[in-house]
Amino acid sequence: MTDLGRTKRRQLLKGAGALGALSALGSPTAAFAKNTNEGQGPEGSWLYTVTATSSSGPPSTVLGLETYAAGGGYVETDQFSFMHSSLATPGHGSWESTGERTFLLTYLTLSYDTQGTPQGTSKIRQVATLNQAGDSYSGSGNFDVYDVHGKVILSGTFTIQATRIRVETPS
User: Fold this and answer.
1) Element (H, E) at 45
2) Residues contacting 78, CB < 8 A, separation 6+
């Protein structure tokens, strides 16, 4: 074996040894699997009920699912996303803590007609307060729906009630 071959072989074995040592410490995803700050912030997944009011008709109540990521990321989907006359993407946005159990949220969605033609965007802004146990929150906010040119075509307000989704043991 040449000197170059022995050097490359040694580097490969060192790399494999380092990889083995890292895997013995556990996977990085396992380190993030349990939220150790429950009760301190909204990090985690939630089932929510929103009642929205606008000038376009009676109040609408829908269910949704959302996840608050550590560091401020946010994703959600709800029953408004799949209406008979339109479709919307899951919402993506950011949240930040404003106090011991309070936080703000802003997120956006993209909307399409049933043929897939872009119809515009929505912006949702929310303020919320976690209960003392950190397993539910309530809040309120407002929303604006924009056409493809950025003109507001609908605005309204909403209230929200959410319950944390907990890990359960299979029965």
Assistant:
1) strand 44-54
2) 48, 50, 62, 63, 64, 65, 91
Q: State both tokens at 29.
A: 């995803």
Please report, in tens digits, the pLDDT of each residue of the chain (171 residues total).
555 454 444 443 344 444 343 333 343 333 344 544 444 799 999 999 999 999 888 999 999 999 999 999 999 999 988 877 889 999 999 999 999 999 999 999 999 999 999 999 999 999 999 999 999 999 999 999 999 999 999 999 999 999 999 999 999
Alpha-carbon distances, residue 71 vs 41, 57, 147 (angstroms): 11, 37, 31
- Identify whether residues 51 and 72 lie together within a single domain: yes
Any domain includes 75: yes
Number of domains in the chain: 2
Pair (139, 94) in one structural domain: yes
The answer to whether residue 60 sits within a structural domain is: yes
Report phi then psi at 109, rounded to 5: -135, 160
Domain that holds residue 108: 44-164
Same domain for 81 and 159, yes or no, is: yes
> Bridge partners of 3?
none
HSE, CB side, 13 Å, CA atoms: give it for residue 100: 3
Do 86 and 128 belong to one domain?
yes
